[in-house]
Here is the input.
Amino acid sequence: MENDSKLIGLYLNLDQKLVAIYNMLSGKKKYPLYARNMWQGLEEDEEEHVNYWQYLRKYNYDLDILTEKESRGYIKKLGELLMRADGLLDSARAGGIPLEQSFDSTVRIEFGTLVSPIYKVLHNHDIIFNSKVFNPRKEYDAHLKRITDAAKKIYHGDSIKRSLMNTYLSVKEERDRMARDAVNDPLTGLSNRRYLRNNGSFLMEIASREKKPLALVMIDVNKFKAINDRFGHPAGDRVLRKIGGILRENTRSSDMAIRYGGDEFAVLLFNQDAKKAGEFVLRLKKETSGARIIYRKNRYMNVTVSAGYSIYDPEKRPVLKKLVSAADAKMYEDKKKSV
Here is the structure.
């Protein structure tokens, strides 16, 4: 937890410096307009990133997924990037820095941050400001696109630097893939149980601070073993994919739809009370039972689900595990009725 706090503080410090750097660079009229526009856009992005780190620091957020060894390595890396940022800030203040040199430094700082394994954090931790979701991975992807678009012009005649930029992007894509695999379920396209563990408790904290209701729904496919035994495992996979699609269609960006394991799913509904959770369950059951799922050429089957929900009480402040257990118990009560 101490290292997490230190990491967040270093990221905050770095992004605050970048706001100042990009503000200066965007005002240099000797640079072409596309470069000034890029730095202005980067400045606006970094102001959002500063808000992100300030929010995590304010609430002493535990990054949770980082080992002690990883944290120490990232702290060292960020210290090096801060020194590089200080050098760029001094050069920008001096006023004589050529376009390509300032851009080189920008690339090294931005990609030095984002291709590091800290990128796991960006894939694992969405946050909510005033009930609006801030997805750090998407924000940073858009941030990097500004840089790569400008690189096509600035590095147009430099094959070595173009090659270096392509290497940076290849490393980033591999980090993306590894980070996605860590928290995504490949069969359904939903987030996995690890993602719920990493983000669920944090979403509960946000619900408490914003005084918003929060519901957890647990869902189980009825007679799933019989489906696999009778129609085969490929048919069972189609059932799970179909339910995953129904959940995606019926949840918002501020919710979490999870494949919890096997034929069990979980959904965290932000700013939804018991009435809304009950309506969600009825809608889910109706859409699932009405879906025709192919199991063989021109042969279809229908499936049903059981579901139960629990409501987060910020005054009692239950842990996520208890919220899951309460919803699970109600789900099994519902399953008995379907037998």
Q: What stands out?
A: The chain has two domains: 2-183, 191-338.
